[in-house]
Structure formats: C-alpha cells, structure tokens
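Reference record:
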Amino acid sequence: MSRAKTSLAALAVVLSACTTSPDPTDQAEQDYARAVEAALQPATPEEVAAANRADPLTKANFWAKEHSKDPDNLEKALTFANALRGIGSDERAIEVLSQVLVVHPGDPDLLIALGKALSAQNDLVASARAFEQATRTAPERAEAWAALGTSLDKLDRHKDAQLAYTQALVLAPTRTSTLTNYGLSLALSGDLKGAEEKLRLAAAQPDADLRVTENLALILGLQGKYDEMAEISSRHAPQGVVEQNTKLLQDMIQPVRSWDALETELPAAKTAAPPVQKSKPKSSAPPVATSKPEETPPEASSTGLRLRRSGD
C-alpha cells in the first residue's frame, strides 16, 4: 500500500472515532436533564402513604418538596398547608394558601383552610372575610356557613353568627359542632332556653363528646336546673366534682351573697367579720360573688366549669 493510501486510511479512522465518541458537555447536560426530570416526578402512592404516617415534621418536609414540584397543584397545596398547621406554622400556611388562591380564585376548600389558619393567628376579621367568600362561592357547603358563624361569634357579632348557623343547619341539620356552637352563641346573647334546646339536640347526636354534655350541664345550671345539671355531669365526672361545680354555680348566680352566708360557709372568716355591721365586711373578708356568670372565679376553671366551643 502506498504512503498516500496509508495516510488516508489513518485519517478515516480518526474521523470515525470523532463521530462516535460522545461530547462530554452534551453528556453532562443530558444527565442533568434526566436528574431534573426524575426529581420533578410526583411521589409514588407508597411514598405518600409512608409520609402521612410519619411524625409531623417529616410529613411537613415531605409535602414541602411535593408542593415545590407543582406549586399550582390545589390538592398538594392544601395538604402542605395542613401539614404546616400540624407543626404550628400557621403563618407559613397562610402564605402558601394565599399564593395558590391567586391561581384558584374562589375555591371553597382553599378559602375555608385559609379562614381556619387566619383564625388560629387571631386575625378574626380576615378569617370571617375568607369564610364569607367561601359561602358565596359554595353556598351549599354547611362547613363554610358554620365556620363563618364561629368567626362572627368571636367578633361578638352574635346575631349575625346565628343567621350563619341557621343556614348551616338547613344544609346539615344534625351537625353536632354547629348545634353546639349555635347553642353557645345563644347563651352569649342571653337566650338560655334557646341554648338549652340546641345543646340538647347536639348531645343527642352519636358523635357528641364530653364538651357538648359539659356545655349542656352548665346551661341547665345557669337556669337553676341543678338536679338535671348534676345528672348529666355525673356521666363523665366524679361525684365530688359534680357537687363542687353545682355549689359553685349556685353561688355565682345568687344576686348577692350575705355576710351571714359567707360566715357560715367559711368559719375562718368569723374573726374578720365586724360584730355589728355584718352587711359591711372588712377588706380581709372573702370577696362577694355577683350575678354575672361570665365573671367566672378562678375555682371555676380548675373544675372545668366553663363553656367550650366545638371545633369546625
């Protein structure tokens, strides 16, 4: 073979090698693209199930990654916000929900979740506004009306709250939390008879819990129905606590307690009582209870004697 032919053959081998060997830069870019694509793949059902069984912080971190893969995904945003609230990060949950609400304006699930997070942050006006918007976009949702009622009650707008509860009960007549909170709203408005009616209905529901019966017992006691109060309370509390609560409530709702009554109940007070002017005890005498039930003395909180709102 001539020298010229040998040189041409060698050049052909070199050119062939150049065409078949991959460019390192292209290969790196392809590997990066594949890695990004794999990272953006949604978690498998098995991974989701495992994360939801994990501790709250692990669950929140998992859904943070899932949310970052698809920030506009409604379901992932709601799950992430719920996980954030599970670790006490309501402020971050509000941020996430507000951002997704721009993409899904008027979505009732987003608005209800946002209202609950705002309420937890004690931003009651914004919370009521979110729930009100939810009732406009989804008027068939009893949960939205009930949550609106709770927010309005917290704003001391009891009459407006009761209108919201009424609408919620039109849609879901046996919803225990709505009946309970409606009853408490009526009690705050001074309608103890109406409060008793709603709380009796709530207590009759299969899912009624201790808070419902406690509220009913207290409302009965405020009306002087001490025997019924004791009977209902005794289902869940020791007899000694029931008797203490009944006595405490009786003392609270008496118009004015006389010094003689206090002297009989508290023998230690006798030394502090003036011998003649018994209607004017000295400053060392025990405080006189008034008829205002909302001014619950410290002893009341230690025995559980207070109204308890149900969560929506």
